[in-house]
Amino acid sequence: MTAVSLVPVPASTLFGRHLLEVTDLRTEELARLLALARYLKVQGRGEQRTLLRDRTLAMLFEKPSLRTRVSFEVAMTQLGGDVLFAQGAEFMIGTRETPEDAARVLSRYVDAIVVRTHAHEPLQRFASAADVPVVNALSARAHPCQALSDMLTLQERFGDIRGLRVAYAGDARNNVAASLAEAAVMLGATVHFGCPPTHRPSESYLAKLDALGAKSGGSARAFSNAVRAVRGADVVYTDVWTSMGEERYRERNDAMLRPYAVTEELFSYAKATAIFMHCLPAHRGEETVAAVIDGPRSAVFDQAENRMHAQKALLVALLTEMKGLPV
Ligand code: CP
Ligand code: NVA
Q1: pLDDT tens readout for residues 27-51
Q2: 303 CB near ligand 1 (under 6 Å)
Q3: Active-site residue 82, yes or no?
Q4: Domain span including residue 33
Q5: Who contacts 296 (Cβ-Cβ below 8 Å, separation ≥6)?
Q6: pLDDT at residue number 2
Q7: What CATH number is given to the structural domain containing 57?
């Protein structure tokens, strides 16, 4: 006779899991998280004040942050939980002790850990030893929390993401580009990177994106001609030319990426209804110009606000069985 499990099956398949990359989620899980984020965004604050009561979130940041830090802290506070924050020398993954030891210790104190780090590999080691959910708050490889917010913003602006053309101009090998592209193709968008050969995703990575998008009709291509990448796009996205930790390449990046700056002229090749997106912080006069980022078709502050709503959904999904929630 088969034993009947008395353990309730969690309604959230994300309960207790880590989020280091977008591809840690199945497409249905990504879609459900976004639905929960939309629900929490309009739900009264009083109704969500107890969702994470008595839970503590540790936030450990090796690099500076405005949006990620504050949006996680406010999200956790509004959900009734507590937050502690350590940065810089106080927390450098793998310097005072192994990532595994740090993860095991912290798992005895807190309910979830959000980490912003340089290299991705120590973060993977940290997560593999942690007994509580670990969330990547940006590593050299990925920025999945940004992608959740970006997808929420696209849904708000366009309804369905399937069939959208998303152009990304600039450093197409960076963390934001990777997470954006993975989420977009999973949800059925076509991604066109506009970048020089030095900043082009590898052929194998482009093939991985095509495979990720196969079920929903998403796909990815790279163009060295910026106009070809942007022509007919619904969305034009860019990010800084030089990411944190990559400062030694700044001069080379400035020279190589200048033709991919989202100027008014380049933006004019997108659809007349196209929106401009940027994860922020931005540098006007470098990867874009004031007329675009401060213009009527810019969605950048919606993206920034949506970080908080998307991360609320993530925290609730990782830390609870989502009882009583409609998704
Ligand atoms: N977009 C983003 O992650 O911003 P911060 O670096 O300020 O957190
Ligand atoms: N690519 C940028 C994103 C900052 C939010 C960086 O890593 O610095």
Answers
A1: 999 999 999 999 999 998 888 999 9
A2: no
A3: no
A4: 22-143+307-319
A5: none
A6: 41
A7: 3.40.50.1370
Give the model confidence (pLDDT) of 231-262 as tens digits: 999 999 999 999 999 999 999 999 999 999 99
What integer pLDDT is reported at residue 90 of this predicted model?
74
Q: How far apart are CA 264 and CA 300, in angstroms?
A: 16
Measured from the alpha carbon of residue 147, the closest ligand is: 1
258 falls within a domain: yes
The answer to whether residues 165 and 217 touch, using CB atoms and an 8 Å cutoff, is: no
List all residues 6 or more positions away from 290 whose beta carbon is below 8 Å from its beta carbon.
Answer: 284
Asked if residue 16 belongs to a domain, the reply is: no
Q: How far is the CA of 303 from the centre of ligand 1 (A)?
A: 11
- Does the beta carbon of 309 lie inside 6 Å of ligand 1? no
Six-digit token string for 112: 């979830």
Pocket of ligand 2 (CB under 6 A): 138, 174-176, 239-240, 243-244, 279
Q: Are strands 235-238 and 165-169 parallel, antiparallel or unpaired?
A: parallel
Catalytic residue among 239, 278, 309, 311: 239
- Is 239 annotated as catalytic? yes
CA 21, 22, 26, 30 dihedral sign is positive
Query: How many domains, the chain?
Result: 2
Pair 164, 189 in one domain: yes
Which protein residue's CA is at the shortest distance from atom 6 of ligand 1? 65
Residues of the chain with pLDDT under 70: 1-11
Helix (H) or strand (E) holding 179: helix 175-186
Q: Bridge partners of 18?
A: none
Q: For residue 22, how far is its CA from the centre of ligand 2 (angstroms)?
A: 16
> From CA 296, how far away is CA 291, in angstroms rounded?
9
Ligand 2 centroid distance, CA of 244 (Å): 6
pLDDT (0 to 100) of residue 11: 57
Considering the candidates 279, 303, 309, 311, report the single residue annotated as catalytic. Answer: 279
Catalytic residue among 18, 38, 67, 143: 143
pLDDT of residue 46: 85
Residue 12 lies in a domain: no
pLDDT, position 1: 39
